[in-house]
Amino acid sequence: MEVCFTGMSAALLEQDTHCTAKTYLWMHPIYGLTALGLEFLHDRLRFLPRPVRALAYTAVIFGAEFATGWLLRKALGRCPWDYAQSGWSVKGLIRLDYAPFWYAAALLFEPAREALLRVTSEALRQTPEYRHAVASGEVTFVPENWVNTYNQWMNNIQDWCISRQLWWGHQ
User: Fold this and answer.
1) pTM surpassing 0.70?
2) What phi and psi values does residue 157 have, to the nearest 5 degrees?
3) How far apart are alpha carbons 121 and 18 in whole angstroms?
4) Which of 11, 37, 144, 151 sits at 20 to 30 Å (Cα–Cα) from 3?
5) Residue 94 main-chain phi, psi, to 5 deg
6) pLDDT digit string (tens) for the chain, length 171 residues
7) Other C-beta atoms within 10 Å of 100: how many?
8) Residue 42: closest CA among 28, 56, 59, 31
9) Those residues with Cβ within 8 angstroms of residue 126's Cβ, 6 or more apart along the chain or in another chain
């Protein structure tokens, strides 16, 4: 998302025909943790209208950007992004003029989440060959007792968003 935004900004504002985009390696874990925070919040605010939920998501995004920027500044001596030159920045860590863009991203969060959820679980439900691969001997597990875990998982597939899949997958 950030790469698309910075690339489009370079093309439109700086007439960069290459649409040169930039990001920082720090952004991957930051966005990953923010997605987990949004997922946590989503479950608790489901009863509210979507535009109100998007406001809450926008606050979480700003809070995550500010907090991680502050932590990086304390730990490394500087924050990789510096918005100090912007008139709408808060301590150079967040830009308040980006609020409409973050709100739009927050509005798109739930539809994107639902689409990813349907794709991941439906894809597994629609592929019976994976369920039968172990029984036919095409796939073997070492150690062999993992066959039971695999079969239980394949027979009890539940809809989880991609951020939870990533989180639990790396545990």
Assistant:
1) no
2) -65, 130
3) 37
4) 37
5) -135, 155
6) 777 777 888 888 888 888 888 888 888 888 888 888 888 888 899 899 999 999 999 999 999 999 999 999 999 999 988 899 988 999 999 999 999 999 998 998 888 877 777 666 666 666 667 667 777 888 788 888 888 888 777 777 666 655 555 655 555
7) 9
8) 56
9) none
